[in-house]
Amino acid sequence: MAATAYASLVSLLNTMDQIQTHPTLSTCFDNYQFQSLWEIVDFLVDFVENYSEAEEDLMRPIGDAAHEAEDVIEVDAADRICGRESPTMLLRVEKIIQEMISIKEKVVKFKEETPSITSMPPPPPPPSSTSRAAKKTTMLGFDGYVAQLLDELTRNVSHRRILPIVGMGGVGKTTLAKNVYENPLAVHHFDVRVWVAVSQEYNATHMLSQALSSIGGSRNKTDDELGVELHKSLFGQRYLVVLDDMWSVEAWEKIQRFFPENGNGSRIIVTTRQQEVVNYFGFSSLVVNFLDYENSWDLFCEVTFAQQDCPPQLERIAKKIVRKCRGLPLAIRVIGGLLGKAPRTHKYWKEIAKDKSLVMEYSGDGNKPINILYLSYKYLPVWLRSCFLYMGLFPDGHLIDVSRLTKLWVAEGFIKPTKNQSLEQVAESYIKELVDRNLLLVGELTEYKKVLSYCLHDLVRELCIKTAEKENFYCVQREIGGRRQFIFDERSASFYPPSLTLKKPSVITPLIWSGQREAPFKSRLLRVLVGDRESSLHKSFRQVNLRYLSHHSLLSTPAIPGSISLCWSLQTLIVLGLDRFVVPYEIWKMPQLRHINIPVMIVPPPPPGDVVALHNLQTLKTVENLIFSEEVCARIPNIRELDIEYRLLEEKVEGVWCFHFHNVGRLSKLESLSIRCWGKRFAGDLLESLKLPNSLTKLVLGNCSIGCSCMTMIASLPHLQLLDLRGKAVVGTEWKFVNEEFRNLKHLIIYDCPNLRKCIADRTTFPVLETLHLENLYVLGDIPLDVGEIPTLEKLSVIKCSKSARMSAIRILEEQESFGNEALHVHIRSWGDEALVRGCYESPNLHFI
């Protein structure tokens, strides 16, 4: 119960902190009561952190009391925001304080009688970068499987073949398929590659959308429309498709007609645990077995000790632990991830080895080794447990967006504030910790190696759900057919039968709903609401305790109502739609706002007289014609990500552009800035006065027509890593970079610049460049050969550019390979003359996409 107790306590602290910083509510509560409650809760948080394995009889009352206190405070806050007051508020809070004092006395007595039994050392420092690259999953003992599978993929058999990979959960089927899918031989052999996560709760729309997203197709269509588009995309192509984690043949039957038989050696890999699926396809299967002891030991050492050897004093006990994993790679990785973060003492490791959970027991429902995986949870620091359990809410096989996950954790109140770090930065350090423990797997990466999403192995997700039910973290209703519906109490708008009897969960989780039914709006305690196109944005703002609101609507909603300010603790506002939205001036009176993401919004100037700085605001996108007045910059001092569009700039005001771009340099925390200009005429001097802060790491400029002086300033930015230049981003047909040095720039994108004929640069201009992406540059001449001399360059992409640009990219690769440089990869997409370009040079590092 420690996870539930800790999450409830930290959530209460966060709620009290928000009230104390609110311009209205801060004066509505009794300061003496708040201070007394704060001191008790702070004491209990410290206790749970250091005695996380204390008895349930002690942890449960702590969580229940914190939960009740937060309910009382939030209900009263909702009443006061709506103009009502509760005469019994002081009495109810006082009653809770007395209950907590009683609990504190029991805790003090327990501490006097019991030594600290915390599971793990203090939390690690946060990652140095939020764009942490994915770890390559080691394939120890799988060399034979890889060779066999590659042979099946590339052998001279013209008809389409289906290749099943079968084995129990956690044995490495997906890892094997992924390594073969990304193998250079497979990349070179197939024209198109598609990856689809099927999962137990498959959905035809989701499967087809995944397939199309792999090859750049559209997604918002009916199943038949998606299928037809997929068929057209694959027709005539030699394709490789991976259908990962297929549980039933019905999933295949729903989509098989959309994979054409081209007679050119196309292949479909299917990973499954079910022999029934293998029998259905009728092809010989590749059976993935357990690792032998030698490979098990090597894998354990690599995961646990990285490049170091196992300490001699731990070797005997470590080998005992490895034997108990019985050759299951997932179990070895999870235990290795646990011990890699644990103290390297014989006493501690012996305690792990004798733990009764360290037994590989196989249950009847798919041979799931849940017991051994439970150790990974048992020895998690208590501050990570609620975050870990929370991820069981996401559907099986679902890719969990990094940005969304951190926002949801913050909205739920799981993140304990620390000095000199935002809550999101703390959440990112938690993600890193879970990845290091092999509980969270890297899902999608950007082209620039930044992690976009993560996923859970289905056995780890099962662990989340079972443990959450056991700890009363959230409830699960199992319906006919085995599908799950998550059930919560009054802080969610979940649908469930009225006859269902539930034990009230102690920690509240969000509702994410979709479909034709509109969510009920009954609870004043609702925190997280994700609505679809059928729901009402206006009704959403009646939920005054909302912290996270994501709304997707195709309906016309030209203005966000001023009632949004009633949502006193709103942190994240995401509105997706087709319109431009007018944001009310009340937005400047919402100090808890952290992230605003709307396709295009018009934001009025701050009202005069009010001085409410939005210190928490980190993301603001996308704003139309934002004026960087001194007052606006003072209101958003900690902004980190800013997207702006300037439209229809037909004339100047009093002879100058009135957007005060010189004040952008005041935003000292700004990391990502995007400025795009639209209209029939573009002003060459629009950004003439632009000043940029040294904190910038990413800059996107579209149709801005910047001059040489502005480019010199950009080059001088000490932390800039990504520069994206689009349309008429730079004046002229010839861009010269030779006088600048972008000393930390890693990624350069030049896109859709119709007049660009020549780009002059050398290896000293971009000394640490890793990727160069050129696209839709139809009149561009040769790419300088000197670009290939950049020692860090890994990828050169030339997409739909002139023949001169494409041919020069191939010459760069040819020259570099003649010098022994095997690290550079060149990606080319042609139109019309692809056969001519393909015949110029052959290399496994030359990719036609």
UniProtKB/TrEMBL annotation:
<dbReference type="Pfam" id="PF00931">
    <property type="entry name" value="NB-ARC"/>
</dbReference>
<dbReference type="InterPro" id="IPR027417">
    <property type="entry name" value="P-loop_NTPase"/>
</dbReference>
<feature type="domain" description="NB-ARC">
    <location>
        <begin position="145"/>
        <end position="309"/>
    </location>
</feature>
<dbReference type="Pfam" id="PF23598">
    <property type="entry name" value="LRR_14"/>
</dbReference>
<keyword id="KW-0067">ATP-binding</keyword>
<comment type="function">
    <text>Confers resistance to late blight (Phytophthora infestans) races carrying the avirulence gene Avr1. Resistance proteins guard the plant against pathogens that contain an appropriate avirulence protein via an indirect interaction with this avirulence protein. That triggers a defense system including the hypersensitive response, which restricts the pathogen growth.</text>
</comment>
<dbReference type="GO" id="GO:0009626">
    <property type="term" value="P:plant-type hypersensitive response"/>
</dbReference>
<feature type="domain" description="Disease resistance protein winged helix">
    <location>
        <begin position="393"/>
        <end position="463"/>
    </location>
</feature>
<feature type="region of interest" description="Disordered">
    <location>
        <begin position="113"/>
        <end position="133"/>
    </location>
</feature>
<dbReference type="Pfam" id="PF23559">
    <property type="entry name" value="WHD_DRP"/>
</dbReference>
<dbReference type="InterPro" id="IPR055414">
    <property type="entry name" value="LRR_R13L4/SHOC2-like"/>
</dbReference>
<keyword id="KW-0677">Repeat</keyword>
<dbReference type="InterPro" id="IPR042197">
    <property type="entry name" value="Apaf_helical"/>
</dbReference>
<keyword id="KW-0381">Hypersensitive response</keyword>
<protein>
    <submittedName>
        <fullName>Late blight resistance protein R1A-10</fullName>
    </submittedName>
</protein>
<keyword id="KW-0547">Nucleotide-binding</keyword>
<dbReference type="InterPro" id="IPR044974">
    <property type="entry name" value="Disease_R_plants"/>
</dbReference>
<dbReference type="InterPro" id="IPR002182">
    <property type="entry name" value="NB-ARC"/>
</dbReference>
<dbReference type="GO" id="GO:0051607">
    <property type="term" value="P:defense response to virus"/>
</dbReference>
<keyword id="KW-0433">Leucine-rich repeat</keyword>
<dbReference type="InterPro" id="IPR032675">
    <property type="entry name" value="LRR_dom_sf"/>
</dbReference>
<comment type="similarity">
    <text>Belongs to the disease resistance NB-LRR family.</text>
</comment>
<keyword id="KW-0963">Cytoplasm</keyword>
<dbReference type="GO" id="GO:0005737">
    <property type="term" value="C:cytoplasm"/>
</dbReference>
<dbReference type="GO" id="GO:0005524">
    <property type="term" value="F:ATP binding"/>
</dbReference>
<feature type="domain" description="Disease resistance R13L4/SHOC-2-like LRR">
    <location>
        <begin position="533"/>
        <end position="800"/>
    </location>
</feature>
<dbReference type="InterPro" id="IPR036388">
    <property type="entry name" value="WH-like_DNA-bd_sf"/>
</dbReference>
<dbReference type="InterPro" id="IPR058922">
    <property type="entry name" value="WHD_DRP"/>
</dbReference>
<keyword id="KW-0611">Plant defense</keyword>
